[in-house]
Amino acid sequence: MHIKKQRLLTPGPTPLLPAALHAMMGSDIHHRTEDFRNLYKQVLADLKTVLATAHDVLVLVASGTGGLEAAVQNFFSPGDEVIVCSAGKFGERWVDLAKAFGLKATVLSAPYGDAVSPAAVEEVLARNKNIRGVFVQASETSTGSQHDVKSMGLAVKKTGAIFVVDAITGLGTMPLEIDAWGLDIVIGGSQKAFMIPPGLAFLSISPKAWALSESATSPRYYFDLRKERKSAAGGESSWTPNTSLLLAFAEALKYIQSIGMDKLVENAQLLAHATRQAVRALGLELFSTSPGSSVTAVRPPAGMDSGVIVKQYRSRFNAIITNGQGSMKGQIFRLAHLGYFDFHDLFAVIAELEIILAAEGYPVRFGSGVAAVQNVYAEAALPKEAPLLV
Question: What is the pTM of this model?
């Protein structure tokens, strides 16, 4: 009760990989030396391996939003017709970026908590042969939902348009077969499933997308990806890199390769599944109709502001979870699963939720939510002949 370790339980930034954190202390190397070039080439090679793509990969000094902006700048021109899928705050960010760069967007909207259907994308593509790009979130963390990226990608693949996927919280939490599914541009961020601090964005870019970049006329300078690709080929960045984060990224990529990207995804999926089971056991309601594995969005008990739960986590346990965003503030709270989270974390998170709910007068049978998590763990990890917890 008196010693309270701070625990970060948000969908970004996420808990840091210790080896990555230690690696950052070696950042006193110059970025125009062979030492740096060797580091940079290794990071790019390992990133391609982790993403399981033959496409080019680039790393930028920016948050994930810098990667989104670079995707709009480098492959589109003012007046280009595009489709934007919007089902939450981050879908709305695509809408804002399209507007900022003068694109003519057909916005396919779904209510918060839902997802845009692939059929809706196919219908617009069939009706309008001038569509140059389709934008979507793989994982919409503002609502806890995910999109059917595979079906959308295969539909776009048949056309002349490119498919641009904000996978900032999708990578490491859901399967994403970049080459096979026709994911032309996939954008990630360092502070999510990759377990290092904010400050790096990265992109995989298909040959189909590079071909479109030759005719794109939107102005660019810092985020000139053709320049960045040329520099990367020689093991350098076009501009001053974030050396400390690249050292951390190198360690995170080694760690992910050691366990396997598929296992990182499975870890998030199991934690998400266990959280959903726990929430139901406690009589609470999930917010999303298409729940993903990066974060679980939960409605608070009737009449309770979700901010109360967020504040109780902080004041009682020094644990940081997230409220709803925008219009959903006070209506949902969100529990993260991506990156350096494990079942030890989740046992505590759900036990703490039970205590918080009881303190606020909500009827709770202590242990019911935790037991649901234990059952998921036992089913996944214990020998099949072992009895499950009840």
Answer: 0.96
